[in-house]
Write a structure and sequence with these properties.
2 domains, 77% helix, 300 residues
Amino acid sequence: MLSSTPRIPRSKKVTGLRYWMLRVLEECERVSADFGADPVHDLRVALRRCRSLADGLMAIDPDPEWKAMKKAGKRLFQRLGALRDVQVMMEWVEKLENSDVERPSSPALPQAQQNSEPIPDPAAHALLEILHRREQEQQQEARSALEEFDRKQWRQWSASLPVRSARIRPGSALFKHLALERWTTARELHNRALRNRSQVAFHSLRIGIKRFRYIVENFLPVEHKAWSNDLKAIQDLLGEVHDLDVLWAAAVSCQVFHDANSRNRWHQRILSERSKRIEAYRAKMIGEDSLWQIWRAALP
């Protein structure tokens, strides 16, 4: 059955503040109809783009509407965060359940059947049940958040703020200096993460590189064209490290492991996937030819 919900037309321009602000309204309609993983993710992406644009433009334009728009977007973004976290964890559980880590045999099944059919993992089943219940709870929170989100005000901002942003020239020296500030902060977080290797340090590093990336992709078109693939790859690696850390913490807190072997097996799976991503990050970000050096060479 076709939805009777009116579609909000997208801006013809596929980038820029007006496009992303209108995209927020469109994605709100999609999420209202389907609280699935893809619509929720797409709405959070659109909100994040608007907030990151506002963050850069606030440094140049003192109009208080930037702060108000950023605050409204941040509130909706955060209230969708728990739902997104649950959905990401469910995807990881299903992926890791089918990983190549050896499972124990079951004496209740014939050996031939054990060789041909994977044995259901009790820990995965228990965790997925818990996450499904949490997903339903968080969908209610997301529904409330969408109802409270002032779309009329947002539409007004989508008309007025892009006019102000059009006065500011992308690629200017000011944005390059702003990118350099973000680069410097992110590089310090990189050094700290490699020193102590803690979850908190890598989480902070992920945020630091994300802030650098947003300045580049929003305000430095030449640099973004050259760096976009690498910036996304690094962001994805650190994002998955964070996802795996959150998954392990959730699994432990939910007490889904029926014995020490089950716990160790899942810990091994998660650590293996996490280590692969840390090593991939190190390969790109350490040494004289690292991405850090490439990015720094193009900045003031």
